[in-house]
């Protein structure tokens, strides 16, 4: 007991964190040295050298590169033909910095088609270039041995625990390989972090239905889809002139009818949640209209289906007010945001008009309008929720006074409360981040406890 008291030191005991938008998939992008970074590559030759080095380092398997910066290496320069020349038949995937676009080699395209790559997706390929959900299909069919999958998942759970997550929502359980590995690992006790999972609708067409492991720790009960792309890939749906120097308005990937079908699918197959990726103001407005119309047709009752906005990154004021009104009326509407993307506000000055930059994660406006939001990290550019909270507290002031107190930032992640007489789920931090709010982004978790059991302790395996 003395050791535990000493360990607490100047830190805090507080509720654990719920990551409302996380991904076990991110275990594929860093574990076991199976990734190359192109963040510093300013020329195509520099990209080639990095890939050649990774090919030599990784003798077999899929070679993946991340953090391709489209501001330095033009989209048109990275092609399937280029990757084929570099790889000589090896399978290569190159992701942009937002993970919402990728270029794939011919061998990967063949793998996707062989394994059921949906025909409607094939048309998205332009010399190997795939965007948004289409890019996600490249991850869905990555092939790993089950033991390799298990190591990746255990490594990812360790990352979640080290940041103080005591519950997560995995918003892209993609591919039968990943889903099968997750079910097996939860069933045999390898994974113990409570997880609510969502799948894309194509997996419903493959026969996947809501499921739960016997211990109740892992559940698939949600459908995930995409209304638009991302600012990083210049595919978030905006109004004309929101992107500098072009008439580009991004990418609206779904019609209202297609989004409405998701709600129908959820009702038909027993799913309890529909969540749609929406980043740009036009996509958010479109989705709000779809949800409003659907509720009107159902007499204001979603019949047990939660309607979710994923990201909700750059909404206009009228849409914020409309969604807040739905919440006050008792409509089951969830808004999940990612404060870490505040770090992009300055970075995206090269492509976005200031009116859009001011819209990005306006948390003070959310509070003023009574909008209830949850938060995740999305793993891009960090999986650390404390870094994410820091960006909510210290949002760049030159783009509007939208920062919030540390209590509000923590509240977007807090996973319940500590109650007397109940098994405790909590974390111990290394500092009092309420009193030292300027240090919230530097918080380190010392211990993570779930249901009365310590599942992680810094410095111990």
Give a written overview of the molecule.
- It comes from Candidatus Kerfeldbacteria bacterium CG15_BIG_FIL_POST_REV_8_21_14_020_45_12.
- Pfam families: Amidohydro_3 (PF07969).
- The chain is of the alpha/beta class and 461 residues long.
- The chain folds into 2 domains: 115 residues, Roll (Diaminopimelate Epimerase, Chain A, domain 1); 306 residues, TIM Barrel (Alpha-Beta Barrel).
- The protein has 17 helices and 18 strands.
- The strands form 3 sheets. Strands 2, 8, 9, 10, 11, 12, 13, 14 and 15 form a 9-stranded mixed sheet that branches. It has a 5-stranded mixed sheet with strand order 3-4-5-6-7, sandwiched between helices. The chain has a 4-stranded antiparallel sheet with strand order 1-16-17-18, with helices on one face.
- It is globular and about 65 Å long.
- The two termini are 20 Å apart.
- The N terminus is likely disordered.
CATH architecture of the largest domain: Alpha-Beta Barrel
Largest beta-sheet details = 9 strands, mixed
What share of residues are in beta strands?
Answer: 15-25%
Strand segment tally: 18
Give me a quick take on this structure.
The protein is α/β, with parallel strands linked by helices and 461 residues long. Helices cover 34% and strands 19% of the residues. The protein is globular, with a radius of gyration of 22 Å.
What are the main properties of this structure?
TIM Barrel; Metal-dep_hydrolase_composite; Metal_Hydrolase; five-stranded mixed β-sheet; Diaminopimelate Epimerase, Chain A, domain 1; 461 residues; alpha/beta; Amidohydro_3; nine-stranded mixed β-sheet
């Amino acid at each position: 007991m003395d050791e535990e008291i000493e360990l607490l030191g100047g830190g805090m005991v507080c509720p654990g964190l719920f990551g409302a938008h996380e991904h076990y998939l991110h275990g594929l992008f860093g574990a076991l040295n199976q990734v190359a970074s192109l963040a510093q590559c300013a020329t195509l030759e520099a990209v080639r050298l990095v890939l050649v080095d990774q090919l030599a380092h990784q003798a077999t398997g899929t070679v993946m590169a991340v953090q391709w910066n489209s501001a330095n290496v033009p989209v048109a320069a990275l092609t399937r033909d280029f990757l084929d020349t570099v790889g000589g038949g090896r399978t290569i995937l190159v992701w942009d910095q937002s993970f919402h676009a990728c270029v794939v080699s011919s061998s990967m395209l063949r793998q996707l088609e062989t394994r059921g790559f949906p025909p409607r997706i094939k048309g998205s390929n332009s010399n190997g270039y795939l965007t948004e959900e289409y890019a996600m299909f490249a991850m869905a069919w990555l092939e790993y041995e089950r033991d390799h999958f298990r190591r990746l998942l255990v490594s990812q759970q360790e990352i979640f625990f080290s940041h103080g997550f005591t519950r997560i929502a995995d918003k892209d359980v993609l591919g039968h390989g990943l889903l099968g590995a997750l079910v097996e690992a939860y069933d045999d006790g390898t994974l113990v972090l409570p997880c609510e999972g969502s799948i894309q609708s194509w997996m419903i067409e493959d026969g996947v239905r809501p499921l739960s492991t016997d211990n109740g720790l892992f559940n698939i009960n949600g459908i995930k889809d995409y209304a638009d792309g991302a600012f990083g890939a210049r595919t978030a749906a905006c109004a004309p002139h929101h992107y500098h120097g072009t008439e580009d308005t991004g990418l609206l990937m779904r019609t209202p009818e297609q989004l409405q079908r998701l709600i129908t699918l959820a009702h038909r197959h027993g799913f309890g949640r529909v969540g749609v990726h929406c980043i740009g103001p036009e996509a958010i407005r479109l989705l709000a209209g779809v949800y409003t119309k659907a509720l009107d047709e159902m007499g204001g009752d979603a019949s047990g289906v939660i309607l979710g906005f994923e990201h909700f990154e750059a909404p206009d004021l009228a849409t914020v007010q409309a969604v807040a009104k739905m919440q006050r009326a008792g409509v089951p509407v969830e808004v999940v945001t990612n404060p870490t993307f505040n770090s992009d506000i300055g970075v995206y000055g090269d492509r976005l008009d200031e009116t859009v930059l001011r819209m990005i994660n306006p948390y003070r406006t959310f509070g003023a309008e009574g909008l209830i939001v949850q938060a995740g990290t999305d793993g891009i550019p960090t999986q650390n929720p404390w870094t994410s909270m820091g960006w909510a507290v210290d949002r760049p002031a030159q783009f509007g006074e939208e920062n919030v107190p540390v209590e509000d930032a923590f509240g977007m992640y807090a996973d319940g409360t500590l109650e007397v007489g109940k098994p405790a789920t909590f974390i111990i931090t290394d500092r009092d981040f309420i009193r030292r709010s300027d240090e919230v982004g530097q918080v380190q978790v010392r211990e993570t406890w779930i249901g009365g059991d310590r599942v992680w302790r810094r410095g111990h395996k």
